[in-house]
Structure formats: structure tokens, C-alpha cells
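Assemble and predict.
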Amino acid sequence: MRGLLLSLALCFQAGLGLAQTDPVIAPQINPVEVEARTETISKTLRCVVCQNQSINDSNAPLAADMRNLVSKRILAGDSDAEVREYLRVRYGDYVLMRPPFQKNTWLLWLGPLLLLASTGLWFLLRASRSKQAGAIGRRVISEADRARVRAALGQMDDDEAGS
Amino acid sequence: MKMSTLLVRTVPIVIFIIIVVFLAIGLQRDPRIIPTEMIDRQLPDFALSELHVEEATVSKWDMMGQTTLLNVFGSWCAACITEHATLMEVSKLGAVQIIGLNWRDTRPDALAWLERFGDPYTKIAFDDESELAIELGVTGAPETFIIGPDGRIRYKQFGPITDEVWVTTIAPIVQAIAEETE
């Protein structure tokens, strides 16, 4: 299914290329589009020298060479995803600004949600427990206890009278 | 103490310990070292001009058939000077051949640098536009790949190969490769 989508996307792209440029020459992408796509893709790739910048923002020489590579891959007919994959194969997930959802990142993606859910659950449990405790609290004094309290209070009255 | 109270009291402590462990691990990692993806991969095909002899090419075939250190360096790279003496010594040992990847440099600068500090390299690929550097996932200099006689990348050293690194890390791997190919 993915392959089919990809090939469809590629056909569509090739078609676009043909429509925009001289159809006699091999399908070419117009330079403005290459530049725009290079910028879009570069923003999603992390500079491996200065790590909190994308290669689009970075002045590092290696970032410049990586931008050139992105342009070259686009000219070679790669889709945006394929260009990213090309660098990912060589530099690892690290090079992607947006970490993909996979085995070692599910906690990263779902962590905040899990935290929210577990805190919510915690509060719900606590609320229901204190409600229960309240109900039990009213019933907890048995008749025998009441008698003991009355007796003790009576004794106190006697003591006070005696003094 | 009731079971539930015990639970309520231990849960925050357990969470705290987990966070501390995670942070402790995170703090001990060097964020500049990006783990390489290249281990056990075959060298990519490439053809770059040789530094000394411009019309000659360096390709992966120069690194096949014997254990090779592919050393990424540049005349602009200060840390490269610190490993250079060790590389000179290693080149005399004859256990490995050292091939240079002169990265993002100019020919005159690189040649002058080698003139000054010595040339331990069998051949030097001149890569001023990071062509091979990106293929190999290079992030900085110096970096050194150990490549087996079959052209398979076995190890990547981040940072300079000092005498100590050679003895404790590089030499044992070279030795292991030699033993398995015997």
C-alpha cells in the first residue's frame, strides 16, 4: 500500500515536472521549486555540528554541504520523505528534527498523555475514597460507644459536682 | 500501616528515583557524540581526487584487502594535531594502512600542514564538499573508521587517537580483525 502510494506520488511529481518545463528534456524540477523544497526539507533536518539548529538555520560548513546534498537529491527526483530517509540512513534518527514515532520514542510521544491520564485517575480515586470514608465516618460510632461516651461525660459531671 | 498507605507513600519516592536515574544517565552522555549508523556496513562507492596527485582517484578499492584506518582530518582542525604523532608512529608499525580523508580543506593548506607535521597516509582523498563525509555520517574531525579487509566498517573513533586510545581501543580491534581473517 505504501509502495503504491509512493509510486503514485512519484508519477504525479514526474507529471508536474513535465508540465512545468520543456517536455523534450528529461523531467526537470524548476529551480524555484527546488529552492523552496530545499528550504522546507532543511528545516526538518538537524545540524549535526550545532545540534539545536536545523541545517537551514545553521552557518556550519557541514550544514551548507548538507543543504547542497538536499538540493542534489531533489534534482535526482527524490521525494521529501526520501531525502530525509537518505540522511537518516547515514546519520540516524538524530538528524531528524521531529523524532519519528517508533519503539524507542513511544514513551516520549505518549509520556505527557500518560502522565495526564494517571494524574486524573489518581484524583478520581482519591475523591471517591474520601467520599466513602465520609459515609463510613457517620456510621462508625456504635451504640455501645455512645453509651461509653455518655457514661464518661456523666462521670465528669459527677467529678465536677464533687469538687 | 495499611497496604494502601504504604503504596501512597512509596509511589512518589519511586518516581523520584526513576527521574534521578534518567537525569544521571543523561548528564553523563556527551551530546556531541552522535552514535554512528555505519558499523558493520560496507564502505560506500566513491571516487575522490587524491590530495597529492590531483588526477589520481581514491576509491573504496584502495581500502580493500587489508585493514585500514580511514582518518578524517583537516588543516583547520586543532584536535587533529594532537593525534598526528600517534598516527605517524602507527604508520611505521605496518599493522594497518592509514588512508586520509582531507575534509573541507584547500589543497595548499592541507599540503602545507602535512609538510609541517608529517604524512602518515598511504593515500589521501580530497573531500572539500563533504561528499564522502556525508556518505559516512561524519560529524566532525578528527574521526577515524576502522575498515576490515572485506571493506566492512568495524568501528568509529570520535576525537583524536592518542597513544592511550591506540593501545586500549584501536589496536585490540585491529588485532581481532587480523585473527579472524587468518
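The beta strands of chain B are 47-49, 57-59, 68-73, 97-103, 123-127, 143-147, 153-158.
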